[in-house]
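name: query_chain
kind: protein
chains: 1
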Amino acid sequence: MGGNLFKLGRIPAETYRSIEQEVAQYLDQKIGKANYRIPRYYADKADFGDLDVLIAVDRLSSNQQLSWQDFRQELLHDLEITQFKAGGGLLSTVYRQFQVDFFARPEATFESTYHYMSFNDLGNLIGKIFKRFNLKYGEDGLSYVFRRKDSSYRKDLLVSRNFIRIFEFLQLDTEHWKQGFESKSEMFDWVIKSPYFSVTPYLKKDKRLQERARQRPTIEAFFKYLKEHQITQTYTYLEDREAYLPMIADHFHRPDLLTQIAHEKEMEAQAAVIRTKYNGKLIMDLFPALQGKALGQFMQQFQESLGDFQRKLYEWDAVEIQRKLHAFHAKWKAKNQAE
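structure:
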């Protein structure tokens, strides 16, 4: 995504469609239509910076006995590609002097990634609305973001990967999305029709959002669209975002989401108790030589030695924890000295 890895510049739509057709014809024969997706774009898009192709890597492995590594090698050979960069689940290539990126996606998120990546940065604009509900919309679908109040701990709890249900939550016209958009402006008209859309975040001097606008032409165009059309639509969200949880659970038929969050809160309460009798400062007081990286390694290895360490540290009193720490430290010190 982005199309700037090889500094090749943008190409007109006609040339792009020719390349897209060639790549699609190759993949049709190589792996079949059902095993790849090319994200959609609005009809009058004038130029392109790259071509993104999603590969259902699990299907290749199970149906065609073809690993991602083997597929990459065969694709490079078949398309006579000599300039490329591979890493993890991404293969970036230069085909006909244009950047073509192939993404390996597991079965679980193959379709959700396709829907999120379609129509340029529309997924980002939708995600901005969901954020106000403590929800995160991305390639993995829609998740509820649980954050502990007194630490950096966070956990994304999957809510749904059904894009119809996801869009319906924001009261967006799903039939219009299926039909596609003729222009960028029509796409913007569509997203602001959600009653939950608010222009407020775009009026604030949000450095992250402004930086993204500089990097992503579609986001920059949306800023311009809001200004030129004098969009003033706002929505007053509840200050307590947890108040939306019953609504979220009901819409997505996920009563278990409330159970998961209750469990996370229970674990958070336990962690707060544990911090009173087990923390870095306490361990440094017990073993002054442990500092910085060594302290982190010691704590990690001690916790791993306990198995279900949070339950045990919660149940043990401070005296018992310190006894366990001294015993583990003696073994840990002897081992490190021997090495």
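note: Residues 22 and 96 are 10 Å apart (CA to CA).
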